[in-house]
Design goal:
By secondary structure, the protein is mostly helical. It has a domain of about 80 residues. The protein contains 4 helices and no strands. Belongs to the complex I LYR family.
């Protein structure tokens, strides 16, 4: 692998991380409150989806590069922005956006693992390339 390819790889991964941080800071992920006091899922069928989305994002945030505390604070604020949304179509859009964030986080983590493995196996080759130039 040439140095230019390696640099391009690191630039792309850095851009993905910045894009994800920007998306999380300005995205609106829903919080749905039940209309009844009992808190049953019959009041709002999307409530369980929203709760599961929050749990999944919280779980994925444990490995976030800036730390789990940073991620959980941003996640909570993103969900609280739309706690009063009641339109099911709007809630569905917000849930879809949250699922997109999950896919982006998974891609970020896979990329990080790939980078670590690449570094382990190609470290000698990279050091010889740097000594040549």
């Amino acid at each position: 692998m040439h140095i230019s390819e390696l640099l391009l790889f690191y630039i792309i991964s850095y851009c993905m991380l910045n894009h994800l941080l920007y998306f999380l800071s300005f995205s609106s992920i829903p919080v749905v409150k039940a209309a009844t006091v009992s808190g049953s899922d019959m009041a709002n069928p999307l409530r369980s989806e929203v709760r599961q989305l929050y749990k999944n994002l919280l779980f994925l945030g444990r490995e976030y590069p800036k730390g789990a505390d940073y991620f959980s604070e941003r996640l909570k604020s993103a969900f609280m922005k739309n706690k009063d949304v009641t339109d099911p179509k709007e809630i569905r859009k917000l849930v879809d956006r949250g699922e997109f964030v999950i896919k982006e986080l998974e891609a970020l983590y896979y990329l990080r693992k790939y980078r670590a493995m690449k570094k382990r196996y190609y470290e000698e080759e990279l050091s010889t390339m740097l000594n040549i130039g």
